Amino acid sequence: MLDNPYILVVEDDAEISQFLQSSLRLNAYKVQCMPTLESATAHLTTNKPILTILDLSLPDGDGSSLIPHIRAYSDLPIIVLSARHLETEKVKCFDLGADDYLAKPFGIEELLARIRVHLKRSSMMSLRDHVYEVGDLTIDLENQAIKLKNLPLHLTPIEFKLLLELAKKPGKAFSHRHLLSAVWGSEYVDDIHYLRIHMGRLRARIEENPATPRFILTEPGIGYRLAAI
User: Fold this and answer.
1) What is the fold, at CATH topology level, of the domain defined by 7-124?
2) At a CB cut-off of 8 Å and minimum separation 6, what does 16 contact?
3) pLDDT tens track for 8-27
4) What is the pTM of this model?
């Protein structure tokens, strides 16, 4: 069993795997690589990485099936790294519980930046007992309290649920379907206009300029995310 924090890379392409190992180690990360779903699943039964980088096209199946397997017991960040560019693939991964999606070919600096964001978010949420702060917005998940400029922010029940759902994983893109199901119920997953209306109202309450939001960001074709720390 590995005792020290490390990043798990699930990638069958030997060239990409070696590139990721070298790049991550040069940036002071420890790395373990697995080339198949089977080996990754077996590895995760006795080891706990701090973050997983996951390819989708693996020789023994679709890498997306590993996402719900991890989510069944862990909240560790999952970054999908795939040559699949369709929005439907991205939405599927986000709905399963992925935190981020980066299409191949990719820039290593962008990948490193996303890793830093997710690791910082995980660390801050753990250290602060689920109190999340970005700018002058404070969201206390445990006590279900929200402050803006250090003053209590009063929201409607729908707005409150939306913001708390986004705050569960700042920096993660939540799909329209996920937010609709979480806030309204599974029978409303196709009613995106509901979501847009209430998200617009929520932005009007917390953003200085709703047209250029600082806190609630749009992921085109996918959904919304709360700005990372």
Assistant:
1) Rossmann fold (3.40.50)
2) 55, 104
3) 999 999 999 999 999 999 99
4) 0.76
